[in-house]
Model the fold of this input.
Amino acid sequence: MERSRWYKDMVFYQVWCRSFRDGNGDGMGDLWGVLEKLDYIKSLGCDGIWFSPIYPSPGADCGYDISDYRDIAPEFGGMEAFRQVLDGAHARGMKVIMDLVVNHTSDEHEWFQKSRRRIEPYTDYYIWRPAGENGKLPNNWDSNFEGKAWTYDEVRGEYYLHLFAVKQPDLNMDNPKVREEVKDIMRFWLELGVDGFREDVITYISKKEGLPDDHIFPIYKGMAHYNHGPHVHEYLAEFKRDVLDYYDCFTIAEAPLVWPKQALRYIDEKNGQLDMMIQFQCVAADCLFTDYIPTKFSLRKMKRAFSSWQYRLRGKSWNVLYLENHDHPRIVSRYGSEKFQKESAKMLAAMYLFQQGTPFVYQGQEIGMTNWRPDDPKAYRDVQSIYNYEHSKKSPQKRLEMLWRSSRDSARTPVQWDDSENAGFSTGTPWMAVNENYRKINVAQQENDPDSVLNFYRKAIRLRKSLSCVRNGIYREYRHWSGKLYLYSMKDKRQTILVVCSFSDKELPFKAPAGFILADGEKILGNYRNSDEETLNPYECRVYLWK
Ligand code: NOJ
Done:
């Protein structure tokens, strides 16, 4: 039977729970806070929630180091709160997807504790290797977060592989028992009623046999041998065949380095193993490969990324549309302008919300939150930021500036709900500092302003859902050479829209592409009240419709 693929009609909201809303006053965001805000999320026009990990975890990587896959962390309210959130979301017609993190666990997970002691059946649940001569590491691979990818475990007397933090040992997916565990975890959550998974770095789960040295990648050494590894499709097909196919659910793969052609091997609607893919190209227009190698923002690079995914996936698969998540700095500070915070936040919303795919809005994005710039490096909480700060050879000031620009923590400060103490996030002491601009940028103030970024998101999402050409139409980009203007149309049998976005902080002359007669169309969205047709204001956006 043809699947309904309901996710194609939805807009998702990403909740990074510890900074979303604290419902019990302990300083940590929790599911009681989410419960309070379900109507708010729904009011945006979002009909789904993706929860970053909320399972029990020591928190070495803010929850991406899981110590129990079948529970909800007590600090987030435990299972009781989760069931209420799940029921509350479903009662509102919203879907809920969980983060499935199975490339690695926490080193405090029972499996690892048993594996390091060689207790069966856990002995080979992880990737263990003896030290080489003179204690040499098993290979030259780097971890993504903390130096080399191998750490010596005194208990077992061997090295274990961790592609992320030291406290995140990689699972050995080649072990069929581990794959059975993954399937059981999936079943557990699907039986409980969740609607799908976002699968964390899922393209990393199969490592090349023999774990050879990597002589290809200059940084992140090893990636050539574990990204899109030899058995990845086979394992994912097994998860689909044995579990996912039995449920009305959907899956999103996170894929750090992938091109559309390669992506289709995972997400082609005819024979893929997953439904959608989070690629990183659309969040790499101001950096090379990682936010820590910054470059000047290039609109051309960004347009190339968006356009190539629109063109290549069309008719074959479905895009994830996103600009922000918990792993990258805030979009207004990166691709827009803090000086034109309101205008550029709206323009960026219009820029991606009218493309084909399922949009994701990350908490705080809908009010145009910006990067955080604390004076004290000790304010940072993220393992990657702390490591990069401590291991950089730059001056302390330059290192701090590096974090201001590149740290994931820029997007992890508490959501700014109002202008009261702690931005209304918590009545206790927030686990992480609040961005000090909360008196200017907050939800309460924007609720009362019909012209706010928040209300613009609502309007744009409503419009998106009313336009058949966005869901079913054909995307076409114009003036791809422009470094200041992003211009695209979506067209189906019934209607055409033209989306016009200026990335300039100055006025720009504007002429519609050939064939578009503005006078015959209707301007259905914009971020300036008065604008002259032939001149775009700084960061202006317009959406025109022809029927
Ligand atoms: C990707 C997640 O989005 C990120 O937050 C996490 O640190 C790594 N995977 C490791 O799980």
Remarks:
- The mean pLDDT is 97.
- Residues 61, 64, 101, 164, 200-201, 254, 326-327 surround 1-deoxynojirimycin (CB under 6 Å).
- The CA atoms of residues 364 and 415 lie 6 Å apart.
- Residues 176-192 form the longest helix (17 residues).
